[in-house]
Specification:
Blueprint lengths: L3 E5 L6 E5 L4 E5 L2 H7 L4 E6 L3 E6 L4 E5 L6 E5 L5 E2 L1 E2 L4 E4 L13 E3 L23
Parallel strand pairs: 3-11
Antiparallel strand pairs: 1-2, 2-5, 3-4, 4-10, 6-7, 7-8, 9-10
């Protein structure tokens, strides 16, 4: 299993390396994660042992802590892309911020009780290779 992953933000101002194994890969459907991503869910990797190293652009990393919660969002101050957050106990890496291939599948969908009403049956929507014409 790959234990070193490289990642970056959309504009490339921030680059990072996560080294170690991810213990969990969750798709979180809570209202806070929907607000963070503007999507049906957040796709986050969790590790209690992996280490985060900022390779460039650490001065562009911003952190928002939602008051009176454990909800934290790190992002690039240039383009707004989601970035990893490291605490003493846990490294959380947005799966979409990785540039290297991820060889694991999501473990679970979590907080399904608070998912959006429109987040049902999405697999039945048609697929397009590019923007539909």
């Amino acid at each position: 299993m790959q234990t070193e992953h490289l990642g970056s933000c959309l504009c490339g101002a921030v680059r990072f390396k996560a080294e170690g194994e991810f213990e969990h890969f969750y798709l979180c459907h809570c209202s806070r994660c929907r607000k963070d991503t503007g999507s049906a869910h957040a796709a986050n990797l969790f590790s209690s042992t992996a280490k985060l190293e900022w390779l460039s652009g650490q001065e562009h990393v911003r952190t928002f802590n939602l008051p009176r919660t454990r909800h934290t969002r790190c992002f690039c101050s240039v383009c707004g892309s989601a970035l990893p957050h490291a605490s003493e106990k846990m490294l959380v890496v947005p799966a979409g911020s990785l540039d290297t291939e991820l060889s694991i599948a999501a473990d679970a969908n979590i907080f399904m009780a608070s998912r959006a009403a429109w987040d049902r049956g999405l697999e039945s929507a048609p697929d397009f290779e590019t923007f539909p014409s």
